[in-house]
Structure formats: C-alpha cells, structure tokens
Amino acid sequence: MTPFIAKLVWWAGITGWYAIRYPHQRRSRKTPIAWRVEPTRDGILLAISFAGLFILPVTYVTAGEPRLADYPFHPLLAWFGAVVFAAALIGFYLAHHDLGRFWSVTLEIRQTHRLVTTGVYRHVRHPMYAAFFLWAVAQALLLPNWIAGPAGLVGFGILFGLRVGREEQMMEATFGDAYRAYAARTWRVVPGLF
Ligand code: SAH
Fold first, then answer.
1. What backbone phi and psi angles, to 5 degrees, belong to 124?
2. Percent of the chain scoring above 90 in pLDDT
3. pLDDT in tens, 39-92
4. N or C: which end of the chain has fewer CB within 10 A?
5. Confidence class of residue 6 from pLDDT cuts 50, 70 and 90?
C-alpha cells in the first residue's frame, strides 16, 4: 500500500457509499413526509458532518492540503483502513436495505412510517450511524494527516452527539410504547457497549 493507493481506496469508498445511497435517495423523495424535527438545526449538523467526512478529506486527497499537518504514512494502518471502509459499506448497505423507504437525510417521519425492528435493526437502533463511524475511522487510518484524517470522526461525532437523542425522542413520540420496548431490548450503536 502506498499513499497514492490509500487515496484511491478513499475515493473507492466514497463512490461505493454513493452508489448504495443513490437509489434510496430517489425513492425516499417520493414518500410523503408527515413531520420534520428542527430542519434548520439538523441542516447545520449535516453540513458540519459533510465538511468532516468529505470537504476536508477531498481537499487533502486532491490538493494535498493542509500539508503542515502531514505525518509519515504507515502501510499497515492504511490496509486496516481499507478493511474498515469495506465493513462500513457492508453495514451501510444492510441498514439501507432494512430501513427501506423510511430512511431520510434529516429527521423526519413519513406518512406511512412503520417502526423497523428487523434485520440489522434487531441488534442496534442506529446501524447506519455505526457505519458512518466505521467510515470515519477508515478515513483516519487511510489519510496520514492530523486534520483531514480525524475530521470525519469530529464532524460525524458532532452530528451523532447532538442528533441521536432528538431522533429517539421523535421515534418515541411517534411509536410510543412500541419504541420504548424496542429501545429497552437493543443497544444504540455497539451491542453490549453503547
Ligand atoms: N438512526 C438510524 C436511521 C438513520 S436515517 C440508523 O442509524 O440506522 C434517519 C431516519 O430514520 C429518521 O428520520 C427516522 O425517521 C428513521 N428511523 C430511525 N430508526 C428507525 C426505525 N427503527 N424504524 C423506522 N424508521 C427509523
């Protein structure tokens, strides 16, 4: 593994992610929305996450900036990053597959919304966020730069930290006892840990 190949792996990961998301994005636009939770606040959080997972790393991968924050490349770390990115894409695919048309970029409830508790959702309540965390870890392992590398963890960490409580409140307000029971028997992101 060379620094150049590590950058290509990052691009491949981003492309794979988009290929998985695209059909769901198209389909979800056609499913009418019943309720949106604080769209402006949510939009700002999404922009922060986008900056960390895409804008900063793409600047590094294309222009090599910020050079000042570079550190020596370790092939082994980058190999590990490639494996973690592949795991992120598998998790991402499964979460999209199981959530189907109830997926949304911002916090919203669809008119025909049902609570999904099967597939990967049987084990954790936020498998898609788990996949984003894996992506962010992969980015840190693939890009030997103290800013572009960890930016995804910081950006997505902010989105997750400030969103997940509101999302669960929204789900509880919509599905009541069914969601409370579901939350009582599942973990948020990592079974047995959190
Ligand atoms: N937090 C989840 C889903 C991310 S997409 C995950 O990480 O996998 C965000 C949207 O998914 C929310 O607006 C909500 O409407 C919907 N959602 C989240 N959990 C759900 C569930 N168990 N069943 C149905 N819809 C869900």
1. -135, 150
2. 90
3. 999 999 999 999 999 999 999 999 999 999 999 999 999 999 999 999 999 999
4. C
5. very high
Ligand 1 mean position to 142 CA, how many Å?
29
Q: What's the gap in Å between 179 CA and the centre of ligand 1?
A: 12
CATH of 3-185, one of 1.20.120.1630, 3.40.50.2300, 3.40.50.620, 1.10.645.10: 1.20.120.1630
Ligand 1 atom index nearest CA of 129: 7
Residue 192 pLDDT:
86
Per-residue burial over 121-130, b if 16 or more Cβ lie within 10 Å, else e, is beebbbbbbb
Beta strands in 93-190 (DSSP E): 108-110
To test the pocket of ligand 1, the residue of 102, 109, 116, 156 to mutate (highest count of ligand atoms within 8 Å of its CB) is 102
Ligand 1 neighbours, Cβ below 6 Å, are 95, 99, 102-104, 107-109, 115-116, 121, 126-129, 167, 171
CA distance 127 to 112: 22
Residue 85 is encoded by which pair of tokens?
Answer: 């990115």
What confidence tier does 193 reach under pLDDT thresholds 50, 70, 90? confident
